[in-house]
User: What shape does this take?
Amino acid sequence: MRRFSKEEKSWMMYDWASSAYSIIITTAVFPIFYKAAATSAGVSAADSTAYLGYTVAIATFILAMLGPILGTIADYQGFKKRFFIFFFSLGVLATAILAFIPSDQWLLLLICYTFAAVGSTGANVFYDAFLVDVTTEEKMNRISSRGFSYGYIGSTIPFIISIAVILLSQNGIIPISATIASKIAFLITAIWWLIFSIPLLKNVKQIYYIKREPKPVANSFKRLAKTLKEIRKYRALFLFLIAYFFYIDGVGTVITMSTAYGTDLGINSTSLLIILFVTQVVAAPFSILYGRLSERFTGKKMLYVGIFVYMIVCIYAYFLKTTLDFWILAMLVATSQGGIQALSRSYFAKLVPKEKTNEFFGFYNIFGKFASIMGPILVGVTAQLTGKSNTGVFSLIILFIIGMIVLARVPEPKTDKTIPPNTISY
Assistant: This one.
């Protein structure tokens, strides 16, 4: 008997594909490239970090508004894949365009980055919702965690190639500038993302859906309004979303702002790239470990572990001074960043009604993305007020504390083995 089905493997491969964007564009090369462009234009370090935070906030606000609406429409037969393809294509195209923007146009870089971020996060809404279509509830923790592991492993390959090109250019071994090398990294990301998304595009299909009906958009708004009116019916689900809103805020902010924060500490770009590479390598086995431990201790208890680790990260970040300190911080993050995201995804997938996964993953997105607005703004404003980025990172600890308290009130999801894949009509 095969360990994983073709659909499960194809779904996990999208993490392999899209994680190249996460590390090269969101975390590593682009922030360094942007910071250099902003600095050369006379923008201060604190201000450029703040502007990046505001840009992330704008992109996530757009998706937060669109998520539940598009998700509700996507619950109709055949719509989930269409919406996924649209946002996926937008993300890949915008990422490729980054390579052709002049390096001195830092504002234009941020605008294009906004489109890339909308495409990436938008595609992830529907990708996450496909989890219920490709596997059983008993395997969701394992599949979700292994997907994140695939992402960390897969992203290291284009990351290594990108680092090699950048370092070789910096040392004059290849006759191109560091600016051109960074742009090549953007193209590598777009190509990698495109090619390894093909298995999902080909093999993953929407199994749970609502039959199409006249006026799907109008009826989608009615269904969304009905869900909001019946919010008490989904008490456990929305309690989890509130907890998720707070703790994922800190997780996302640490990930998206880490490179800019390291730059402000005076860590050179080469050291940052190496640290981020090692972080990816370490995170892969820990993601799988979280999945396996969740089957023994439950996903909820492992979420507690991940939140606690991030609380330690916030405290330690406040006292960061050296490159060694940043190394230690990065390794702490590596132990839990994949696990906490993977188990949050599978925990939520077990709570949602299968025929309404897109609608509810739209809410999952809006709660997660609104949190992503609050976190970067908090770091940006605090950095500008104090002139120190570490103060903003430390302030995130309150979000993890609130998230843990609310999560304690969420019941463990019940595994339902009785619902067969079918067509559901209202």
